[in-house]
Each structure stands twice: as C-alpha cells, then as structure tokens.
Design goal:
Layout: H1 2-19, H2 23-33, H3 39-64, H4 69-93, H5 97-126, H6 144-162, H7 168-177, H8 183-208, H9 213-233, H10 239-258
Helix pairs in contact: 1-2, 1-9, 2-3, 2-10, 3-6, 3-8, 3-9, 4-6, 4-8, 5-7, 5-10, 6-7, 7-8
C-alpha cells in the first residue's frame, strides 16, 4: 500500500500548493477514513509531515522578507509551551486506545468545522469593523501581545491533538487581530510559526509512539512534487472557486469524523 500513501501525499500536496491550506485538514482525515490508520498515529505522523513540508514555505517567506517575526515570537510563546503541556498530559493520563481515539476524532471534527468556517469568512474578517469613513476597530496595542499569545496557546493545543488549526484557522485570527498589517506578512508569520509548532508536537507524538516513520516517508515522496506542481498552477485557478470547494470538502469530512468509530 506504500504507493497508495505516496499517491495520497501527491494529491494532498497538490491541493496545498494550489490553495495554501489543507495539509493537516485533509491528510489526517484521509489516513483515518480511507486507510484505517489509528487517529493518534495519523495525527502524529501528519505533524512531522507538516513540519517538513512547511519548512520550505517558511524559508521562501523568510528570504522574501514577508514574515512579521514579532508575531511569530508571540504566537510561539503561547503555542510551544501549550504543545509540551498537552503531550505531557496525554502521557500522564495514558488513555486507552478507545478513549484516545474518541478524543482525537472529537477535537479533529471541531477543528475541521472551524477551519471550513474560517475559509468561508476569511475575506469578511479582514473587513470586520471597518467603518464607512475608513476607520478600523481593533484591539488596543497594549492588549495585542496577550491576545496573540493566547491565540498561540489555543492553536498549540488544537494542533497537538488534531494536527489541524495552524493554517487557515490561525490565519483568520491574525487577520482579525492585525487588520492594518500586510496580509502577506501575516501569511508568512502563520507559516513560519507552524514549523516549530508541528515539529515539537510531532516529536512529542514520536515519544508517545504515535508516529509511523515508514508512512511519513511514503507521504513525503508524493507530497513534495505535488506541492511544487500545485504552487506553479495556483495562479491559473480562481481562488473564489477553490475556497468554497475546499470548505465544503472539510465540512463533509468533519461530519464523517463525528460519526467515526
């Protein structure tokens, strides 16, 4: 079945390259629903997969100077400790397989639902609170660091349990918190922040024994060329078509995960 994993990695990579989102949102449910991989193993493997695939995107944004490093730092102050605490709690609780499966699928369902909603509302969030005179309602600058750290912590918990949340969901919150910032710099910050978060959470899952390295290699073999090809054809496909289609897919997957046993 290795070639099927590689093909799946290619298809997901293609979607990520075209849309910029969908890695964890599609890969983890695909592994669980289509291949019968244990949810915790699917999450752990996908986290390391995400850290490796997002590294290239983060490097490109860094070279282009399209990363707000202050935001990356604030998000990491919340997300990285949250990931460590979440892994530590999972290890301490030592949940049986059935309970762990229920926890992962429940959080994954909610994360997918929120991600689908975020995709649909992305443009509206950017203009939320804008008045006709051009003024923008936003948090006072003294509250922004705390709000960003809290956002990072929430994303860290969600990503560690479900592997979903660091992409579209995190991006929408950043658009809400920083309405005056350049979108490209927020995108860069979101991608760069996801690299250490998914790597740390993935290594935590490896310590728990919920990572399949052979599966990881098979997925990467397909996804890297998929992302490369997708990124080159993305400009030819209208985002107004892609985003609703992807959101609809995530909604369907979310409901399927809710009833997964």
């Amino acid at each position: 079945m290795d070639w099927m994993y590689t093909l799946s990695g290619f298809l997901v990579g293609l979607i990520v390259g075209v849309t910029g989102v969908g890695g964890g949102s599609l890969m983890t449910p695909l592994l669980v629903l289509a291949f019968g991989i244990a949810p915790a193993t699917a999450v752990g493997t996908d986290l390391l997969y995400a850290s490796l695939t997002k590294t290239m995107g983060g490097w490109v944004h860094g070279r282009r100077g399209t990363v707000d490093w202050k935001i990356v730092g604030l998000l990491s102050m919340g997300s990285l400790p949250a990931a460590v605490l979440t892994i530590s709690l999972l290890k301490y609780l030592a949940l049986d397989e059935k309970t762990l499966r229920g926890l992962v699928t429940s959080v994954l369902s909610v994360a997918l639902l929120l991600t689908a909603t975020a995709l649909l509302l992305k443009d509206k969030v950017r203009h939320f609170g804008r008045r006709k005179d051009g003024m923008v309602f936003e948090l006072h600058h003294s509250h922004l660091p705390a709000a960003t750290i809290i956002t990072g912590a929430m994303v860290g918990i969600m990503v560690t349990i479900s592997s979903v949340g660091a992409g579209a969901l995190g991006m929408v919150v950043l658009l809400f918190l920083y309405p005056r910032h350049q979108t490209v710099k927020l995108v860069g910050a979101d991608i760069v922040h996801a690299v250490p978060l998914t790597a740390l959470a993935g290594m935590g899952h490896m310590a728990l024994g919920t990572v399949d390295l052979v599966l990881l290699g098979s997925l990467l073999l397909g996804s890297l060329p998929g992302i490369y090809i997708g990124s080159h054809v993305s400009a030819k496909i209208p985002e107004k078509i892609l985003r609703p289609v992807l959101a609809t897919m995530l909604l369907i997957i979310s409901f399927k995960m809710m009833f997964y046993k």
